[in-house]
Each structure stands twice: as C-alpha cells, then as structure tokens.
Amino acid sequence: MIEVTNLHKGFNGEEILKGITTTFDRGKTNLIIGTSGSGKTVFLKCLLGLFTPEQGAICYDGSTYSELSEEQQRDLREQMGMVFQGSALFDSMTVEENVMFPLMMFTKQKKDDMLERVHEVLNRVNLENANNKLPSEISGGMQKRVAIARAIVTRPKYLFCDEPNSGLDPRTAIVIDNLIKEITEEYDITTVINTHDMNSVMEIGEKIVFLKNGYLEWEGDKSQIFKTDNKAVTDFVYSSNLFKKVRDAQIKRL
Ligand SMILES: Nc1ncnc2c1ncn2[C@@H]1O[C@H](COP(=O)(O)OP(=O)(O)OP(=O)(O)O)[C@@H](O)[C@H]1O
C-alpha cells in the first residue's frame, strides 16, 4: 500500500502538484488520469523516488520515504518495477538479455538462476519462442510484454506503468491491461498506472485518481466514474471517442 499525504512538487517557483492526498492499495490496479499537463507524470516520478517533493509524505507499507536513510531509499527503489511509455527496451539486446538486465544490476544471483527466473517471467507474460529475438524483430504488443517481464523479474512490491497502452491497437491494449491486472493480483503488487485511455479505465480501473491542474479533483472506481457529476471528470470521460458516440446517441434519443 502507498499512502500519499499533502504532496507538493514544483519547478522554478511554479507549483505543479498542489497538495495531493490519496492511497493506492496492494493487489489493486490504481490509475492516475487527467488532462494533459495536469501533473500525472510528475506524480508518478515522485512515487518512484525520482523527484523529491517540497512538502508532504509518501509512505510505502509503513515506511515514509523522506525519513529513510539513503541506503534504505535505494533498497526501497529496488522494490519498484517500471514499465516505461514506449517500452524503452535496449535495442541491441535480445528479449532474454533485456529481461535479465535488472537481475544483473541489482542481484548477485548465478547466471543459471537468473536465466531460470527470466524464462519463468517470459512464460508468465505468454511470450514464448522470442527469447533470442531483438526488440525490432517483435511486435509492439510483444515488446510491451517484454517490458512487463523486465519490470517484474526482481519480484517488486510496487509496479509503476507510464501510458502502458500507448501505440497499441485497442485489442492488444486490452490484453496488456488485463495482463497487468492479473500480475498485480497474483503477486499482490501495488500497481499505479498513468493513463489517458478510457478503455483502460473501464477495463481495470479499481481505483481512479483524477488530477486537474495539480489538484486531486476526484477519486473513485470505474463504476462511480460514470455516476459523478463532477464536470471536469465527465468532460474527460466523454471526450474519449468511445464515449462521445454513447453520449451523442443519448442526446439523439432525448
Ligand atoms: N522536470 C521538469 N522541470 C520543469 N517543469 C516540469 C518538469 N516536469 C514536468 N514539468 C511541468 O509540469 C507540468 C505537468 O507535467 P506532467 O508531465 O506531469 O503532465 P501530464 O499530466 O503527465 O501530461 P501529459 O498527459 O501530457 O503527459 C507541465 O507544465 C510540465 O511542463
């Protein structure tokens, strides 16, 4: 579980996050949504320990980040997996080498043990017969599976995903969403996903945090998001192509 209290973060005197308070439960897919420039990426980077907030606290299963020693902060960061936008695989490394990379960086395991773990996670993300391929030789959906395998290979307690669906066709996007949800439940991970995608909200939005201009404007789950009368949220929901059609049909019937 991650508990965020009164988080403030700015740059060069401009405040970007303006006092965010929320919680992200373990074993759940938590989504951060909001309009462009609302501070979603800055928030995710604060959760990853990449940005230091000016005020407020982030507490990971009882450990408040700012109260930890540098060594403890490093240990905590090693318990975090990250799926980057666009997958961010190493082009010159094979699928197997990409997934093994965090194990080589952060553990002192024997090569055979590392390989066994790599094959285990590649199987889990249903990626067979691609171990020796380069990223350029596999599809975008397969690259995303490799990125997920690489993010979970060290058995992280926290998984952060930045726009995991960007660049994927809608069908593949749903498969990837559900894979992340299944992994979150199976391994009891606290997962936080930054997304623009209303399909993801519908599919896996167990907790949704909506940011607007650096404020937490609304939070709830995927059933509540269609019942809220918060205008910023309804504008966002119905600006997606999928729901524009639904709304237009409703207006026509009136
Ligand atoms: N390192 C930085 N230095 C200065 N300003 C920054 C930095 N990172 C982000 N910002 C500013 O913070 C604001 C919020 O940016 P952020 O990337 O978090 O938005 P976002 O909600 O993720 O948008 P998008 O959906 O378009 O990716 C923007 O005005 C951006 O210019």
Automatic annotation (TrEMBL):
Q: Does the keyword Transport apply?
A: yes
Give a single Pfam family match. ABC_tran
Stored SMART domains: AAA
In what residue span(s) does the ABC transporter domain sit? 2-238
Keywords assigned by UniProt? ATP-binding, Nucleotide-binding, Transport
Molecular-function annotations in GO = ATP binding; ATP hydrolysis activity
Record flagged with keyword Ubl conjugation: no
The UniProt entry, under Gene3D superfamilies, shows: P-loop containing nucleotide triphosphate hydrolases
Query: How is this protein named in the record?
Result: ATP-binding cassette domain-containing protein
Q: Which organism is it from?
A: Aquimarina algiphila
